[in-house]
Amino acid sequence: MNTESRNAQGEKIDYSFHDGGGDVVVAIGHGVTGNKDRPLVEGLASGLAAAGFSALRFSFAGNGDSEGDFRDATISKEVGDLGAVLDAIEAAGKTAYYAGHSMGGAVGVLRASSDDRIKALVSLAGMVDTKKFAETEFGEVTPGEGNMWDDEDCPLSQAYMDDLTGIGTLVEKGGEIGVPWLLVHGTEDDVVLIQDTHDIFEKANEPKRKLVIDGCDHVFSEPNHLAAMVDGVVGWAKSL
Fold this sequence. Notes:
The chain is of the alpha/beta class. The chain has a single domain, classed as 3-Layer(aba) Sandwich (Rossmann fold). The chain has 7 helices and 7 strands; from the N terminus they run ββαβαβαβααβαβα.
């Protein structure tokens, strides 16, 4: 694919395409402070392509090499970024699936609940209770002054905190997803707790599937945990 992708603000979305052949393209979105080159994103894209599914891993605006300001990168804005990526996939005449990690998982739930171009959905350690996440992770940081996890490249903005708090929780959105949905989470995730996945899975419609990876952290950092995630996603996609 060589279609340019720009969001509603005119910011260019940087992406890398893995051609697996066929008519399906799996767009892969990262979590907060991440980008398209994170190991778990690259690992999933490579695994999908090897299995015959094309993959498009992208950086949300304000992240990685995409245009835009990191301080504006809220869940709500990123829902629009994903729409621009779907536009590019549609323009290429392909069918779109979406896999999102962490905050990118929340983006996927919101987009898939209102955009029928997403034909299958994957949530990887997906954020659901956004208000609780804001309070737990950044409640003691002053927006406009402090940073996310002391990373100077990731300033904490009031817009980001207001968006998380305003959304509150996505749990009821689970019942608005009408496509096949795979939810993957590790038992040792201390960033987005596995309870988020359990809660929204209960609200989700069939066909749904949950994959729990014992001992796995938030970013699937151990090789065996990454392999389990990739194999789980690929196997599920093949079953559709």
